[in-house]
């Protein structure tokens, strides 16, 4: 029992025994040394904490704390003191107490050795970290400047005129010039960072900072170039808008002049030729006007990106006003389509007049033969010939009436420039045919008045047959062809108009 108490007291004595004197080593017991190692280990964790990004000022404090603790821990007196304690325990204790004391002392020495190695490793890391944190602090002003430059290139701007755009462009070019001047600073910082990054002990955050620097530099240049492109395009668009607007006005005026000068030509050869030439002119005008209008609207769309609402509405109104004037293109197409139809109708009309003109000499000859026959003619034959001539003359006048109606309903001049000598020639030809027909009909009627009613009825019957027989032949031919299936709306409308005309003719013949 006394021996046991003696061992305990001796161990307690050893635990509180001071190490050799040192002005740097303030600790007096193993407990103090254990506490020092724990503080040092905590300081190492602070140094190597990858989840926390320090400023250089913050890391300086962490570094100084670690350096102070490491300096105390690395004093040679500490290791000598630990060895002395171990030797004393080995010499003064025995049995089970000696084993426990030796084990505890050995664990402390082992932990001390491990901590010493850890401190050495951390001292190498902390120097690299200190340089990296100083580097990131140096990067901060440059990165903030680049962020500000990006903000200048992306913030919302508005311009309502060439002068405003030029002013904005001048400011932006100064910003680009500053970016260019910063290139050397950027390259130096990048090279410095890459050198630090090549150190095996370099922290992970350094790569992120370098990547962020490169991203900001590329973004600042990219956004700057994009804003420069947009501003230059805006300037070009102001000039393009004004030029294309004025050019479009000139083209529309020319198209309107061409529209007014495009009239029906009362010439069977010159009319189709004029129509073909005007089709080509209309096609040329359409392409020019549509291209110019598109260029104008494209320029307006580009200007609208920077325009204030009032100015945007003003230009939009100008664009819409020109858009409404583009109807001249469709109006011209419709007019040319009507002229093409007119050319076909005029050809048919001229054929009808010529047919009437060609009959007149025959009618005149028949009348002369009745009045002064070359050979004797019996009274009955004279009556029949007279009534037939009267009937044929009546049919010719009715045909002339239809030709006149056709002229008045759609062929006669209606626009300025159509009342030409050629159109007047058609009127003159109709007047000549009409007056000649009427004179011949009156003459033959006077001859017919000399005969009785039964002879007149015979003449009317004969005239009716002459009208009916040709019509029935045409009807049989139309029935043989049948109703064709239209290929488009225009053909369907033409067939409908033809059917209505045929119905009216049929009802007329029925009466």
Helix content: over 70%
**Averaged pLDDT:** 81
How large a portion of the residues is in β-strands, by DSSP E?
under 5%
The biggest beta sheet reads: none
Task: Tell me, briefly, the overall form.
Answer: rod-shaped
Number of strands: 0
How many separate helices? 15
Structural class: mainly alpha
Radius of gyration: 58 Å
Termini separation comes to 160 Å
Low-pLDDT sequence parts? 1-27
Order of helices and strands: HHHHHHHHHHHHHHH
SSE inventory with pairings:
Elements lengths: L1 H15 L13 H18 L8 H18 L2 H17 L2 H60 L7 H20 L1 H15 L6 H58 L8 H35 L4 H17 L1 H45 L7 H33 L9 H28 L4 H29 L7 H22 L1
Helix pairs in contact: 1-4, 2-3, 2-5, 3-5, 4-5, 5-7, 5-8, 6-8, 7-8, 8-9, 8-11, 9-10, 9-11, 11-12, 11-13, 12-13, 12-14
How would you characterize this protein structure?
The chain has 511 residues and is mostly helical. It has 15 helices and no strands. Helix 1 runs antiparallel to helix 4, helix 9 (270-304) runs antiparallel to helix 10 (309-325) and helix 11 packs antiparallel against helix 12 (379-411).
């Amino acid at each position: 029992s006394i021996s046991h108490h003696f061992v305990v007291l001796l161990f307690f004595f050893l635990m509180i025994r001071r190490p050799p004197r040192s002005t740097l080593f303030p600790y007096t017991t193993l407990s103090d040394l254990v506490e020092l190692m724990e503080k040092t280990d905590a300081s190492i964790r602070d140094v190597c904490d990858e989840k926390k990004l320090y400023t250089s000022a913050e890391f300086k404090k962490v570094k100084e704390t670690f350096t102070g603790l490491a300096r105390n821990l690395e004093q040679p007196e500490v290791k000598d003191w630990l060895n002395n304690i171990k030797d004393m325990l080995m010499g003064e204790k025995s049995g089970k107490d000696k084993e426990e004391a030796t084990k505890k002392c050995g664990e402390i020495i082992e932990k001390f050795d491990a901590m010493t190695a850890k401190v050495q490793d951390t001292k190498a890391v902390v120097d690299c970290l200190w340089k990296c944190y100083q580097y990131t602090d140096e990067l901060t002003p440059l990165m903030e400047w680049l962020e500000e430059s990006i903000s200048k290139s992306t913030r919302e701007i508005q311009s309502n005129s060439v002068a405003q755009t030029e002013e904005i462009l001048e400011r932006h070019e100064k910003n680009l010039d500053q970016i260019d001047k910063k290139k050397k600073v950027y390259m130096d910082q990048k090279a410095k960072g890459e050198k630090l990054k090549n150190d095996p002990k370099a922290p992970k955050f350094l790569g992120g900072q370098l990547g962020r620097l490169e991203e900001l530099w590329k973004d600042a240049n990219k956004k700057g170039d994009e804003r420069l492109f947009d501003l230059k395009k805006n300037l070009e668009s102001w000039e393009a808008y004004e030029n294309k607007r004025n050019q479009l006005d000139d083209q529309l005026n020319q198209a309107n002049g061409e529209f007014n000068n495009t009239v029906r030509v009362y010439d069977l050869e010159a009319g189709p030729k004029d129509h073909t030439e005007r089709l080509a002119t209309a096609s040329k005008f359409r392409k020019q006007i549509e291209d110019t209008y598109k260029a104008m609207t494209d320029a307006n769309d580009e200007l609208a990106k920077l325009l204030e609402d009032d100015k945007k509405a003003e230009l939009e109104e100008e664009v819409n006003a020109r858009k409404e004037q583009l109807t001249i293109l469709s109006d011209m197409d419709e007019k040319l389509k009507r002229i093409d139809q007119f050319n076909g109708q005029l050809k048919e009309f001229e054929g009808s007049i010529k047919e009437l003109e060609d009959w007149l000499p025959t009618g005149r000859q028949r009348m002369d033969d009745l009045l002064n026959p070359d050979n004797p003619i019996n009274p009955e034959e004279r009556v029949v010939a007279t009534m037939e001539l009267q009937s044929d003359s009546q049919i010719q006048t009715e045909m002339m009436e239809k030709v006149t109606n056709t002229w008045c309903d759609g062929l006669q001049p209606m626009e300025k420039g159509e009342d030409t000598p050629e159109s007047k020639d058609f009127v003159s030809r109709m007047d000549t045919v009409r007056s000649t027909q009427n004179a011949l009909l009156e003459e033959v009627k006077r001859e017919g008045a000399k005969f009785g009613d039964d002879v007149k009825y015979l003449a009317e019957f004969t005239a009716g047959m002459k009208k009916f027989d040709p019509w029935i032949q045409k009807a049989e031919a139309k029935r043989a062809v049948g109703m064709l299936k239209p290929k488009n709306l225009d053909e369907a409308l033409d067939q409908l108009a033809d059917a209505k005309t045929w119905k009216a003719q049929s009802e007329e013949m029925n009466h």
